[in-house]
Structure formats: structure tokens, C-alpha cells
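Build the 3D complex.
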Amino acid sequence: MSAPSPMFALPARVLHWLMAILIVSMLFIGVGMVASVSETHDLLIRIHKPLGIAILVLAVIRIAVRLRYPPPPLPADLPALQKLAALASHWLLYILMLLMPLIGWAMLSAGGYPVMLSESLRLPPIFPVSPVAFAVLRHAHGFFALLLFLTFLAHMGAALYHGLIRRDGVLSSMAGRRLP
Amino acid sequence: MHEPSSPPTGIAWRWALIGIVVVGTAAAFGYVGGWLAPHRLTPKRIVDQLQQNGGMHPGYRRNHAKGICVAGYFDSNGGAQAYSRAQVFAAGRTPVVGRLAIPGGNPYAPDSSAPIRSMGLRFTQPNGQQWRTGMNSMPVFLVSTPQAFYEQAQSSAPDPATGKPDPAKIKAFFAAHPESAPFLAWVKTAKPSASFATESYWSLDAFVFVDASGTRHAVRWRMVPVDAGAPVDGSKSDADYLSADLTQRLAKGPQRWKLMVTLANPGDPTNDATKAWPSDRKEIDAGTLVLDQATAQDSGPCRDINYDPLVLPDGIEASDDPLLPARSAAYADSYLRRTSEEAHLPGTTAAHPKPETKS
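Done.
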């Protein structure tokens, strides 16, 4: 076993696990609501919009935390390709968690919909009304959602690989404690 | 290197665990998203069926495809303010962009093809919130659930052999759906009217008004024409008489409807659009809808509006009517299809808008 490795800073760990729950829930809510005609369709849409804005705010904070507290280094013996994959997938995740709420907001704006976060709270539009832009943004929202889900699967698989196969302290640096 | 300390069999189990977690998560996602649940009724399946029935007409709505844009305002008299805190019901004017249409997915269908006319309205409040509603010129809907709506659409699909719906299938559907009886009784006497202006338009679905104190009131509403004259049978007229009639009437002056709100008594069904409420229910005159402009739908301001009945301002909420979320979901799917065609996105059929008609 390796020596106890440095951990992610506490704010980074809290944000990571909170946002993991929110973003994975959001992905399931998103695909579920567009494939449903029942009462859940309306309920899920009502959750989807404020949750998306919450994720946007948390993502901004998280990137600031990431820049303020650099993450612990990856194990020195990790193959270069895996290091590159780790770095690239992390930045892809950051970009997507920022981009997805913005595209959703812009898409509703372009469709001429009022962007309602609750019964009475409305956000201003961030894009001019345009059916062509709506169609492009709506498809982009779905495409990037699938990309985000696949990136999440790879991220989760890689984390488990570090924790269960390599047991190199990478998973515990985010989990906050040594794993068995 | 960090050599694994477990024996090889332990490692195999660990790999298997990773595989199970990743594949299991992907499968759950596929199930929730409907890809692994092919029998679930989805917006896509409903709209696919409507598209099959009405034919493929890129750029047009998949239902109520033939229509005309209208505009004007709603003059609230403050009468509904005690029941709903929505800004639209405070005394004063709210601008409206609407659409008058006939049912079906074919934008070239003759106006006499159905005895039903529809009115979609979008009210834009000063606070930026909107109220969108889609109403039909009949007091009750023909089914009460999304599943029954889908089956009804299936039963009236054109037979590949004849190109026309199979009467036996339609008969079988209604035999299995006794809840359609009030609609069928209405349709027996209904005639395709010669004018949009002479028709009343019903919300069909129930909604909930929320007043300033937070008290909830179950309601339905309808638009009742003012001074438009009695409906004239238009079943013998030319194919496209409705828009010409409307333009002619507007040349003489604006067309008006009273917005009548019906309050439910406790126990009145809010989840069943096939059942009218008893006629003695309290009614409120909420104000007057004034329409003074009409534009062809290919270029008019209603073209890019999805008249989703769940776009509601603070003070109006959905009821427990199961048709409402299904309408919202299916309209969204139809809207994405036609805007994608408008955008010439790959995989869509290019939109061929009808030449603009003078309005």
C-alpha cells in the first residue's frame, strides 16, 4: 500500500459529493421527463429548472475552489495516458456542468418560454427568441446530456478502478478516508 | 508499483463489481429514458401516431396544423381577481397573441373536415409571466387519459389499403370507451361552422386558481362570442373559408369573446375532461378578449409559439387532469420537430412553407 496520500481540500470534497448527487439526479430527471406523459413529466420539469440553476451556481463556486486549492497530484506511477485521460475528463466535466444549465436557459429563452424557477420566480431571457436557435440548442442540450452521462460513467468506473484495483489512494483522496 | 494484495480471484470479483456498477447505472438510465422501456407511452409515440394520421408536413404543427394567427388584447374587468392572483385578472389590458385552427395534422385539410375549431392564446403579463391556453369549440373532450387518446389516434389511422380510417376500428374504440358518450352526443349535432368568430371555446381540462391568500379554486373556462351572430353551417363551403371569413369580419371591426370562468363545487371531477360540470355552477365574467388582427400562420406571430397549456402564471396551476402533462409533453415534441425542420437540421425533412396568403 502507498503512504497516506494528500486529500482534496474539504470544500472540494463537499462540493464534489453534493454535486455528484445533484448532477446524476438531474441527468435521470432530464431523460425521464422527456420520455414521460404522466404527472411525473410536469413534476420533473418543475424540479429540473431550479436544480439546473443551482448546479450552475455550484459549478462556478467549484471551479473557483479548484483554482484556489489545487488537487493532490495523481500517483507518480500512473501511465501518462491515464493521467491525460484523468485531466481531460475532469475539465470536460467542469465545462459540461457549466454549459448544460446555460444551454437549457438559452434554449427556453429562444423558444419564447418564460423561464420559471417556481410558480412566481422568473429568470430573464439570455437569448433572443428564434425557432432555429431553439431547435439547435434543444438538440445540443440532449447531446451534451448524453456526453455528460458517459463522462460520468467513465469517471465513476475510473474511480472504482483506482479504489478497488490499483488501490493507490486516488479514490480515498476524494472519499475522505482510507478504503478497506 | 502498487501491487494488488488480494489473490487473483479477489481481483476478478473487484473487476466484476466495477462492471456491475457501471453497466447497472447505464441500464437504469436507459430504462428511465425509455430506450429500454419500449412499451411506455412517450410523447414521441403520441406524436408519431398523429404524424402518421395527418401525413408528414414539415414545419407544421403535428395536430391542429391548419390555422391562422390572431392578435389583440384581453380587457380584464377584475371579476376573477378574487379567485386568482394572476396579474392578467387585475383590471386592465394584457396583450394577446393567438391562433385559431382546425384539428388534424394536415395543414391543407378542408375547413369542413371536422366540426371542431380551436383557439390558442398567449397572454403576456407586465411581470413577464405568461398564460398559455389551448381551447376547443366543444364542451367535453373525447377521452380522459393519454393512453385512451393514443388508442383513439391509432384507431383512426388511415388504412394502408384504402388510405382512409377503418370505420370498424373506430367503432371498436368507442365501444370500449363509454366515457366518450358525452362527446359523441355533442358531435352528432355539431356542424363545421362557417366562422371562427361565432364559436365558443372551452378549456376542457380543469385548472386551479390560487387567490392572494393562497386559497385554491378548481375552475374551467370558456370564451363566449359577443355579437358575432349565430353559427352558420359551413359544411358545404369551399376548402378555405375560415380565414377569409375572419379577415372580412376584422375589416369591419374587432371580434370579441367574454372569458367565463366556472367554479367547481366540492366533488366535481377535475381529472376527467369527458365530464361536464353541472350547469348551475357559479360563473364569473372575467373580462373581454378582443382580437383585432389576423396574419397567415407561415409569417404571423403565432408561428413560433407552442400553446402549451402548462405555461401558467403565478395564480393559475394545473389540476390533477392527466391530459394536461401529456398535452404539454406532446406539444413540446411537436414543437421540437417543426422548429428542427425550420432550422433544416440534419435528419429532418426540409420545411416547405405554403406561399404566404394575403391577410
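Chain A has a mean pLDDT of 94.
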